[in-house]
Amino acid sequence: MNRVKKELNVDFINKWMKKGLNPIILSILSRRDTTKEEDLLDFLYPTFENIYSPYIFENISVAYQRIDLAIKNNEKIIIFGDRDVDGTTSTAIIFKFLKLLNANVSWEVPLGEDLYGLHKNKFTDWSEKKYSLCITVDCGITNIGEVEELKKIGIETIIIDHHKPLDNKPDAVCIINPKCEKSLSFTDIAACGVSFLFVYGYLIYKNKIFNKKIALIYSYNNQIKLDIYQNLICTHSLNLSSLNEILESHFDYYFLYSDKQVDLTKIKNIVEQKKINIISNNFPKDSFVSLLENTGLRAKLNLFKIILKSIDKLEDIKSNFLPLAMLGLIADIMPLHKTNRIIVKYGMEYLKQQKLTNLIKLCEKIKFDYSTANAKDISWQLCPILNSSGRMGSANQTVNFLIAEDNLTEIIDLMIVNNELRKKKGEEAYNSFIDKLEENKFLYENKLTFFYSEEIHKGITGITANKLASETNCPTIVAAIEGDYFTGSIRGKSDHHFVDFLQKASSILEEFGGHKAAAGFRFRKERLDSFKNFLKLNAKFFSQEVKDENVYIDAEIPYEYLNYDLFKIINILEPYGEA
After folding, report:
1. In which domain, by residue range, is 14 found?
2. Strands 233-240 and 2-4
3. Assuming Cys at both sites, which of 39, 461, 479, 512 could form a disulfide with 486, CB separation 3.0 to 4.6 Å?
4. How many C-beta atoms surround the C-beta of residue 108 within 10 A?
5. pTM of this structure
6. What is the per-residue pLDDT across 47-89, written as a single tens digit (0 to 9) for each?
């Protein structure tokens, strides 16, 4: 095992030390290649003004139009989610928001032996209940046939998801999924984050700025710049030879940004004719935004600060829904970058401000100090309890808890009981497989392992696979028998995407889906031998794994500097998380 320290970017460190940033923090960021101003902003000082615009989802306004029509006609809407924390928080966010709009809305999540995603066995009931709009959250992107079947019985579908799509996509009213947007560089947002953006986008949709073209004028490197924004997305960026060019332009709103006092006498005619709003830096002088050299970024953040103040009910939406999105993001082990980091930061702040009674009651019951909690504490203490009911087949308990404001004691007690049961069953499953570890690895050329049993609960296949993978150091598959089917999970570290691996077995599997390092599947019991043969033949899929034997060191700290002050400095990097 080699200890490796990357070369430091000395110019980067010196530049930001002069601006007051800590050299240890800068060394860590330098070795993590986080040196651009916007990356520093997102990582060290996440601000809501820099969250993704919901209009990164190209056709999102089509979904809003359909929801408005449903509300106007008092149509019955069904929200269908998933059983994990991401799925239940997403369900709660969309349900609570539609209730605020006085929509005629209900929700469902998989219960008991129900399978993941949309299934036709529910459709007769939905038709009898006269639902005409289905909104899927944290599922739906691979349900091509099911969405088509819903359409045939008069139920349209909006899909809010984050899983990897197949080659073909469902024929839905609208698909809102970061992995379907080719223009996005960062797509690993959990469904609860996508659900929050969906709600946020609706507020913009109802605001006077919707679809309006906003001109932002500023000076950068002695060049007059014009950035054009629509729905909080920069659509064009132009260089101007002089401000007089503005007179020939036609935009809905004009803003001129300057950190200095602007001499309006020289441009009075332009300002009056185009009704230009003069703005300056409204962030505190000691804030990171004020240190930014990129005037365009600083101008954008100040423009958005003004726009966000004009959006009705935004603060209520943030305080009520960001804590839920924060829980789902942490539980789904999403990379804490960009929009994810902003959601987690604000969600934790609102939790500490006691904005949600239900979460505070749960914290008090389990004696969890939310006032000093960090992301790891929430991951270990809150998320397993919220996840446990879904694991044990009662995900409705979690949703009921997340949407409730009173009568919480009984629901909390049930979730705690389910968590203890989940831990017990998980331990039993792990113990039943651990003795067969080496034998199992040998069967699949030490490239992967596959365990299955009639004795284990399907709700703990994922956590059991994850625990076993830490022992095997290779992808691990665990499956449970569920009626006529094996239902299983694959977990572990890999250079390859698990969904791509499972897609090779599509002729064997009834269904499959998931993420790069966590996926699920189902196949009929009589196909067990076929699945085993598939694994033996395709174990080589993982044979080209690049095992990095290096340990990459961010910084070496002399013993005498290991003290509480250093701990406080390092905590600037919170929230810690995946990647």
Report:
1. 2-45+550-573
2. unpaired
3. 479
4. 18
5. 0.91
6. 999 999 999 999 999 999 999 999 999 999 999 999 999 999 9
The HSE-up count of residue 318 (CA atoms within 13 Å, CB side) is 20
In a shared domain, residues 172 and 60: yes
Tokens of 490: 């694959």
Which tokens go with 576? 């810690």
| Rounded-to-integer distance, Cα 108 and Cα 220, Å | 52
Rounded CA separation 426/382 (Å):
18
The residue among 205, 235, 266 that closes a domain is: 205
Kindly report the CA angle at 547 between 546 and 549, in degrees rounded to 5? 135
DSSP state of 6: P
Number of domains in the chain: 4
Beta partners for 220?
223
pLDDT in tens, 132-162: 999 999 999 999 999 999 999 999 999 999 9
Q: Where are the alpha helices (DSSP H) in 82-214?
A: 85-100, 123-128, 144-152, 191-205
Judge whether 259 and 220 are in contact, CB under 8 Å: no
Token reading at 420 = 């203890």
Domain end point (choices 152, 170, 205): 205
Does the residue 508 lie in any domain? yes
Please indicate, yes or no, whether residues 219 and 194 belong to a single structural domain of this protein: no
User: Any bridge partners for residue 318, and if so which?
Assistant: none
User: Rounded distance, CA 429 to CA 451, Å?
Assistant: 10
Kindly state whether residues 103 and 192 are assigned to the same domain: yes
